[in-house]
Write a structure and sequence with these properties.
Blueprint (H helix, E strand, L loop, with lengths): L3 H27 L4 E4 L4 E4 L14 E4 L2 E4 L4 E6 L5 E10 L5 E11 L8 E2 L4 E4 L18 E2 L7 E13 L2 E17 L3 E14 L12 E5 L4 E4 L16 E4 L13 E4 L1 E11 L3 E13 L10 E5 L1 E3 L9 E7 L17 E3 L8 E5 L4 E10 L5 E11 L20 E9 L9 E6 L3 E20 L5 E20 L2 E5 L5 E7 L6 E6 L10 H12 L7 H7 L9 H11 L12 E5 L19 E3 L11 E5 L15 E3 L10 E4 L4 E2 L20 E2 L25 E4 L3
Parallel strand pairs: 2-7, 9-13, 14-19, 20-26, 27-36
Antiparallel strand pairs: 1-3, 3-4, 5-6, 6-7, 8-10, 11-12, 12-13, 15-17, 16-18, 18-19, 21-22, 22-24, 23-25, 25-26, 27-32, 28-31, 28-33, 29-30, 33-35, 34-36, 37-38, 38-41, 39-40
Length: 719
């Protein structure tokens, strides 16, 4: 048993020697084999080629004996600049069984001579609105700001720009922005760096059209039977928001110039004239008016200043005795050379405007002087008249009790009077009232021209010879001239709003009353009116009187829209000095009515009160005044009448304060969700002196309690 360890030791030595002999045998065999490494060839590529996955350009192998193996992963070194130009090396290393190293290197040469260039997306042209809009690339959005491009392996791109500003006017400018992109990797000793260029166009345009108040149709008269002379005010357009004046032209063939003034000589008839207002870069708006020339050359009446005639006896009761008299006089008998300046013949003569009133019968009731009108009417219907004294006498007829009746002196107590007040029945002092005749008064003047002429006469003397002699003779020629005049009287309303024209002569001629008023432009117009107009345009409210529609049409174009709201808001904020249009106040006939209030926007405004004549018992002719822009139509009395409309104590409804002057009132349904604004103003109809106390209905109508008759205005005071 003690020999076992030695036995194991001898066995281990035997095995070791056997393994060593085999190893020495294998080493001797391997020394007889050679190892070779095989590298892929060098290659040239451009910067657009693949430079990261290099295995596509081949891999190294090594051969040992009869077998070939992969050389493994190479060591890669990049020798490239910022433009990806240069070379890349790939080195493989392997060892044989004797620890001998074998290496090879592949070189990949990278050039910048690849095909094509960078793909650049240039900024698009753009139109910017406003006076001086921000045009810097940093303040513009894509795709109007900067050029862009994709990644370029062969390039390093940088950008810059320069601007050229071209100004047509303050509302029209143009920027030519030149962009340049330079490739730092593309350089030639002859041409320098490669630069790409592009021009971007940026338009700076104020597209806000001007507010234009086209003149109303113009009516003039022609007194030469052919043409009428128009003296018109130029069309004025307020400077735009950018301060530029607008280019205005007209297409009238009869105007003295084709600018903003259409004054000129126009033929009889209707001529439509259009204005063209250019703004921004060639944009334009248009408006037109009609020039109506009427034939104002009325016939020229000439009548006898006085005609004396006698009565013929008449036995009215057939008793054989003359007890009355009569004479028939025709209007044409009083004519003394009436004529038509335009040759509109034949002429008709009558004792009134009625062309059938051609004769009249005079009796003893007309003994004495009678003033009669002799009307002359041409074939176009134009009329004029003159006054003649017709003296009726009772001479040879010897009619008993046929004498002139005593005449009472004419007392000039004829008058025209009335009152001017606001819609809240407040007097309007200081208004101008004008009374004018619609027909002219004709005044005739007679003059005589005396001339001496040399005349030739002949006679035969006693010897039978014919003799001649010269002598001076006097010729007297009568010359008649007529002038037209329109009687005009003017006055002012008193502190109580009344006006009076007294000591008027009773005349059977047509008269016209008109009134005018002005004050400080900012009086009575505030944010309340802006609120009312805003809610009207939104459709929240409607107007119940034509006065409000007229006051809300700020630019007087016949429409109530956002343009009116913008002008009124700018005026209240003092951004403009006055409201557009030709009216500040409207003073209209107090009796004027319209079936639908909004008809006033497309109807003739009732500025005038026409009278057929003046009489002793004239009624009062009243006017109502209201200011444009004061949509509440209640000057001087905003706080004088206050009433309350209360809601029962329910937190779901609002407390409302109402003011009105139009004397109408009705229940107002309220929706809490729809009334989210505080201090909003609404216009609602309300009956005069209406009082009602009822509980709130299930539909949400509010309980109204009217304390006093109140001016029209509504304030929402919050929850």
């Amino acid at each position: 048993m003690k020999s076992t360890p030695n036995k194991n030791r001898y066995l281990f030595i035997a095995f070791f020697m056997l393994a060593l002999s085999y190893s020495m045998r294998a080493t001797e065999d391997s020394n007889s084999l050679s190892l070779s490494i095989n590298c892929p060839p060098d290659i040239s590529i451009n910067c657009h080629s693949e430079i990261w996955n290099l295995s596509i350009y081949g891999n190294a192998t090594y051969t040992y004996g009869y077998y070939t193996f992969s050389a493994g992963t190479p060591v890669v070194n990049y020798y490239l600049n910022s433009c990806n130009q240069g070379y890349i090396t790939r080195t493989w290393t392997v060892e044989d069984y004797q620890w001998h190293s074998f290496s090879c290197t592949q070189t990949i040469f990278v050039s910048s001579s690849g095909p094509g260039g960078p793909i650049i997306t240039w900024p698009e042209d753009v139109e910017l609105s406003g006076c001086n809009p921000q045009s810097s690339p940093n303040q513009l959005a894509f795709p109007y700001n900067f050029p862009t491009w994709g990644y370029s392996e062969c390039g390093m791109l940088g950008k810059t720009y320069s601007d050229m500003l071209f100004t047509v006017n303050d509302q029209c400018k143009k920027i030519m922005r030149t962009w340049k992109v330079m490739d730092w990797c593309q350089y030639s000793q002859y041409t320098g760096y490669k630069i790409y260029s592009y021009i971007q166009v940026i338009y700076l345009i104020n597209n806000t059209p001007p507010v234009v108040n086209c003149p109303s149709d113009i009516a003039i008269e022609s007194y030469d039977c052919q043409n009428g002379i128009l003296e018109s005010a130029p069309l004025i357009v307020q400077p735009g928001s950018c301060g530029a004046q607008f280019e205005i032209s007209n297409n009238s063939p009869y105007a003295k110039s084709n600018g903003n003034n259409i004054s000129g000589v126009y033929p009889i008839g209707n001529t439509k004239v259009s204005y063209t207002i250019k703004y921004a870069c060639g944009r334009a708006i248009y408006c037109s008016t009609n020039v109506v020339v009427k034939n104002g050359a009325k016939p020229v009446p000439c009548c006898l200043g006085q005609l004396v005639t006698t009565l013929m006896g008449v036995d009215t009761d057939n008793d054989g005795k003359t007890d009355n008299g009569m004479v028939e006089v025709w209007a044409k008998d009083l004519n003394q050379g009436s004529h038509s300046l335009c040759g509109n013949l034949p002429l008709k003569y009558s004792f009134s405007k009625n062309i059938e009133d051609t004769y009249r019968v005079f009796t003893c009731d007309n003994i004495g002087a009678n003033k009669v009108e002799v009307w002359v009417t041409d074939n176009k219907g134009a009329q004029n008249y003159c006054i003649s004294d017709l003296i009726i006498q009772n001479n040879a007829a010897n009619i008993s009790n046929c004498f002139p009746k005593p005449t009472e002196p004419v007392v000039p107590d004829y008058r025209v009077q009335g009152r001017i007040y606001t819609l809240s029945d407040k007097a309007l002092p200081g208004a101008s009232i004008k009374l004018e005749s619609l027909l002219p008064t004709i005044k005739y003047t007679i003059s005589y021209d005396t001339t001496e002429v040399l005349a030739l006469d002949s006679f035969i003397n006693m010897s039978g010879y014919k003799l001649y002699r010269y002598f001076y003779t006097t010729n007297i020629a009568e010359k008649r001239d007529s002038t037209l005049s329109y009687k005009i009287k003017e006055t002012k309303s008193t502190g109580s709003g009344h006006y009076l024209f007294d000591s008027l002569t009773a005349e059977n001629i047509a008269l016209r009353l008109s009134a005018f008023y002005s004050d400080s432009v900012y009086n009575y117009i505030d944010n309340n009116d802006v609120e009312l107009l805003y809610h009207f345009i939104k459709g929240d409210i409607s107007f119940s009187s034509f006065h409000q529609y007229l006051a809300a049409d700020i630019n007087e174009d016949g429409y109530i829209d956002s343009t009116d709201l913008s002008a009124l808001a700018s005026f209240v904020k003092r951004e403009i000095a006055g409201l557009p249009g030709s009216h500040q106040w409207y003073v209209v006939n107090a009796k004027a009515t319209f079936e639908n209030p909004d008809e006033i926007l497309n109807s003739r405004v009732p500025y005038y009160i026409d009278l057929d004549s003046v009489s002793k018992s004239n009624p009062d002719y009243n006017f109502i005044a209201f200011k444009k822009g004061d949509i509440s139509i209640d000057p001087n009395t905003y706080n004088q009448f206050i009433s309350e409309v209360r809601v029962r104590q329910n937190p779901k409804y609002r407390l409302i304060y109402l003011q009105t002057h139009l004397n109408t009132m009705s229940l107002l349904p309220l929706n809490r969700q729809s009334q989210s604004m505080q201090d909003s103003q609404y216009s609602i109809p309300m009956p005069r002196k209406f009082t009602q106390n009822n509980s709130m209905s299930a539909t949400g109508c509010i309980l109204l309690k009217l304390i006093y008759q109140i001016p029209r205005r509504v304030y929402y005071s919050g929850d």
